[in-house]
């Protein structure tokens, strides 16, 4: 993994190392506190979200909307 990251120019770090420009899902963009994020954290989040059903995804985004109020 470390070797592949080096080839791609992605630093192995817990600091933000990528920038999210856009998403097909506007709700997803809204939940990010900052568009500069860590790729490993993003991958972890996407694996969790990918396993959610439609109602669970609704709840996931609803919790975020409630936090922002």
What can you tell me about this protein's structure?
The protein has 69 residues and is mainly alpha-helical. It has one domain (2-68). Helices cover 58% and strands 6% of the residues. It is built from four helices and two strands, in the order αβαβαα. The chain has helices at 2-8, 26-31, 39-50, 54-68; strands at residues 18-19, 36-37. It has a two-stranded antiparallel sheet. It is elongated. It starts with a helix and ends with a helix.
Q: Care to give the gist of this entry?
A:
The chain is mainly α and 69 residues long. It is built from 4 helices and 2 strands. The chain has one domain (2-68).
Low-confidence stretches: none
Distance between the termini: 40 Å
Shape: elongated
Taken together, the total number of domains comes to: 1
Number of strands: 2
What spatial order of strands do you see in the largest sheet? Answer: 1-2
Helix content: 55-70%
Please tally the helical runs, counting DSSP H or I stretches of 4 or more residues.
4
Structural class: mainly alpha
Strand content: 5-15%
């Amino acid at each position: 993994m470390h070797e592949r990251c080096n080839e791609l120019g992605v630093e192995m770090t817990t600091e933000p190392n990528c920038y999210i420009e856009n998403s097909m899902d506007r709700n997803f963009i809204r939940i990010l506190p900052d568009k500069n994020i860590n790729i490993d954290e993003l991958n972890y989040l996407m694996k969790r979200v990918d396993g959610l059903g439609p109602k669970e995804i609704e709840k996931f985004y609803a919790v975020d909307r409630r936090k922002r109020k």
